[in-house]
Amino acid sequence: MSTVTRASLAEHIYTEVGLSRSESVALLEAVLETMATALESGESVKISGFGTFMVRRKGQRSGRNPKTGVEIPILPRSVISFRPSHILRAAVNGTSE
């Protein structure tokens, strides 16, 4: 099992689409930048047949230091979550839709 990296994605674009290597890298960076900008502004990013990336707000809550047991406040924050499409979920599980 290997990790998919920016370099491997750009190489795949290069071999499948036929763009030059530098154009493939530029295309990939443009797509990732567009996704990041949308998420930064609180928008969801939906890729049909793949899934949806969305920003969720988590409110303040109290937590506990596991070492000392002292209660500390956990500040509110935004987190990115991913919900796979039913097509991707079925492919990962090896089932048909």
From TrEMBL:
Biological-process GO terms, alphabetical: DNA recombination; positive regulation of metabolic process; regulation of DNA-templated transcription; regulation of translation
GO terms, molecular function: DNA binding; structural constituent of chromatin
Family recorded in the similarity comment: Belongs to the bacterial histone-like protein family.
Entries under SUPFAM superfamilies matching the protein: IHF-like DNA-binding proteins
Protein name as it appears in the record: Integration host factor subunit alpha
Assembly and oligomerization: Heterodimer of an alpha and a beta chain.
Spans through the membrane: none
Keywords: DNA recombination, DNA-binding, Transcription, Transcription regulation, Translation regulation
GO CC terms, sorted: cytosol
Gene that specifies this protein: ihfA
Phylogenetic placement of the source organism: Bacteria, Pseudomonadati, Pseudomonadota, Alphaproteobacteria, Acetobacterales
Function statement: This protein is one of the two subunits of integration host factor, a specific DNA-binding protein that functions in genetic recombination as well as in transcriptional and translational control.
The keyword DNA-binding belongs to this UniProt entry's keyword annotation: yes
Keyword Lipid biosynthesis: no
UniProt organism field: Acetobacter aceti NBRC 14818
